[in-house]
Design a protein that fits this description.
611 residues; alpha/beta; 6-stranded parallel sheet; 24 helices; 15% strand; binds thiamine diphosphate; binds magnesium ion
């Protein structure tokens, strides 16, 4: 199973043949894989590897700093933030038992959003596994259900190859989290380092090789263009796969050359520059009205790295009802025809497929005049533009985001918690490039924003990184405020404080007659500014007057170090548009400030589809 990769490494590795401990091997492979930052928390069962990292850093000028969070969940999300912002594999390293179980949420979150991370867990000694030993948890069974792959390493001679294979599995195909469960005696074992070699994993590698080699045949290109040629209103629906598959460049070229407008999912934000004339922004439950109308009006839909999720196609039968042709590009064969019957599909590397199609189109001289459709989309965009109560005396959250956006110009990394603030950020920020928008899309994990922002800042030291958080979401990992100042990261933290779980309140107002069961926090006593000051933030300000917004936001964004801003927003501000769960886009509510094409009554969703 040796390939060129192994041969080159084998020839080159200066430590091949050296005798070292398992712990040292782990660290050496991390270094070989290009790891430059580890996020993790120590403990008994991981001590040998922590010691090996310490010694490695002494010898190599701190080439692999260990960043210590307040909680292992933070470490997992930092690794994920690092990976999302850079495309490189993020690494978290934790002890056995509680350390490992604290990372379950980021592992599942990374699986659901296809994010490549490697989580290294210490485990009790092989002889103690299964005895309810101190700090033992059944990591393979727990993580087996949520990770892309889990390795429990019981044979130390396979340790080196397993660590290397974990990185391969995390980053190839549909990326995802890989967990390494390493018993303490395996870490302490001494053996010969080979400097190359991976596990056979023949089935997986065969599939990956096939994916890479799966070029679009000429006949498929011909079918595609025959169908596209019949379309009068084609639309691209781009998802997170475009970002994760590094296909943004190809997508932009494809849409620009053929002049096809693009809507993106929450995860696909940044796949196309949101300020591009062809960009129709986000579709779905809280998508722009004009984006959803474009989906309703199109007669040909090109789904690229997207999966017809229930937040996009709440009612799959009525999603893109006029589309006579639906094409689907994905890296994962199991996504094809999973939710919606499609007419044409390609499973493979998305950039290769798009570029091959472009090449075919040029060769056959494909040209269509879709200018009428373009004009229609432009009209949708201006007629149904995002808007809110600009005259309100209260601070509207949209206004705050517009003020920040005016300074960052689509170039900042934006991480978020989960809730209304997340949707407002998705709707009102501009994103010029991929990997600037970091959000927990599929899992929707509150507490994601702050640690993800920290991880992203380590990956992109020169970028402005802003966490747009909710007062409830930030509480979940508020311990990580201290991590920001410990490492003197210039992360900007914004809390849009609506005194409660705004998104939950919105659903309770719409669907539960306004009974705010356990979602109102207006009587809570937390002083966020004091909390930030206590954690060492040199800038921590509360903003509660609309007239101060522009000035304070500018001062906050320009502050050179860690900065914290709490904004007391209108507690009743809603997220609009909204397509209720399980409903089709013709039931979209646009609210008071966004023009609707149809008068829509708020419909109570089918209880069986309520989630
Ligand atoms: C870990 C977790 N628990 C519960 C939820 C359910 N939930 C979704 S949004 C939300 C409220 C979030 O409140 P906040 O962070 O203040 O954001 P807001 O909606 O007010 O902007 C809750 C409880 C969740 N998404 N994640
Ligand atoms: Mg809130």
């Amino acid at each position: 199973m040796k390939d060129r990769y192994d041969m080159v490494n084998q020839a080159a590795h200066p430590l091949a043949g050296a005798s070292m401990t398992g712990a040292d091997m782990v660290v050496q492979v991390l270094s070989d894989e290009g790891v430059d930052t580890i996020f993790g928390y120590s403990g008994g069962a991981i001590l040998p590897i922590y010691d090996a990292v310490f010694r490695f850093n002494l010898e190599h000028g701190s080439a692999m700093p260990l960043i210590v969070p307040a909680n292992e969940q933070g470490a997992g999300f930092m690794a994920a933030g690092y990976a999302r912002a850079s495309g490189r594999v993020g690494v978290a390293m934790v002890t056995s038992g509680p350390g490992a179980t604290n990372t379950v949420t980021p592992v599942r979150d990374s699986m659901a959003d296809s994010v490549p991370i490697v989580v290294i867990c210490g485990q009790v000694a092989t002889t103690a596994i299964g005895t309810d030993a101190f700090q033992e948890a059944p990591v393979p069974s727990i993580m087996g259900a949520v990770a892309k792959h889990v390795f429990l390493i019981t044979d130390p001679t396979k340790l080196e190859a397993t660590v290397r294979t974990a990185f391969e599995i995390a980053r190839t195909g549909r990326p995802g989290p890989v967990v390494l469960d390493i018993p303490k005696d395996v870490q302490n074992w001494k053996g010969v380092f080979h400097g190359s070699g991976r596990l056979p994993v023949p089935g997986y590698r065969q599939r990956m090789n096939r994916l890479g080699a799966n070029k679009l045949p000429e006949a498929a290109c011909a079918d595609f263009f025959a169908a596209l040629g019949r379309a009068r209103r084609p639309l691209i629906y781009a998802g997170g796969g475009v970002i994760n598959g590094n296909a943004s460049f190809a997508l932009r070229e494809f849409s620009r050359e053929l002049k096809i407008p693009v809507v993106t999912t929450l995860m696909g934000i940044g796949a196309i520059d949101t300020t591009d004339p062809l960009a129709m922004r986000m579709l779905g439950m809280h998508g722009a009205a004009f984006a959803n109308y474009a989906v309703d009006d199109c007669d040909c839909l090109l789904a690229i790295g997207a999966r017809f999720d229930d937040r996009v196609a709440g009612n799959p039968g009525k999603f893109a009802p006029g589309a006579k042709f639906i094409a689907h590009f994905d890296i994962d064969a199991s996504e094809i025809n999973k939710v919606k019957r499609i007419d044409w599909s390609h499973v493979g590397l998305v950039p290769d497929a798009l570029l091959a199609l472009l090449d075919y189109g040029r060769r056959i001289g494909f040209r269509r005049d879709w200018s009428e459709w373009q004009v229609h989309c432009d009209e949708l965009r201006s007629r149904h533009a995002m808007n809110y109560d600009r005259d309100s005396e209260l601070i509207q959250p949209y206004y705050v985001i517009e003020a920040i956006n005016a300074l960052t110009d689509g170039e900042a990394i934006i991480a978020t918690g989960v809730g209304q603030h997340q949707m407002w950020a998705a709707q009102y920020f501009d994103f010029r490039s991929p990997r600037l928008w970091l959000t927990s899309g599929s899992m929707g994990t509150m507490g994601f924003g702050l640690p993800a922002a920290i991880g992203a800042q380590f990956a992109q030291r020169q970028r402005l990184v802003i966490d747009i958080d909710g007062d409830a979401s930030i509480r979940m990992n508020i311990g990580e405020l201290e991590t920001v100042t410990t490492y003197d990261l210039p992360v900007k933290v914004v809390v849009l404080n609506n005194c409660g779980d705004g998104m939950v309140k919105q659903w309770q107002k719409l669907f539960f007659k306004g009974r705010l069961s356990a979602s109102d926090k207006s009587l809570h006593k937390k002083d966020f500014v004091k909390a930030a000051l206590a954690d060492g933030f040199p800038y921590a300000v509360r903003l509660d007057r609309k007239s101060d917004v522009a000035r304070v936001v500018e001062e906050f964004i320009r502050f050179p170090g860690p900065a914290f801003l709490e904004v007391m927003i209108d507690a009743d501000a809603g997220v609009y548009p909204m397509v209720g769960p399980g409903q089709s886009y013709d039931a979209m509510i646009t609210g008071e400030h966004i023009a609707s094409r149809t008068a829509v009554e708020i419909q109570a969703p089918d209880a069986s589809k309520m989630f």
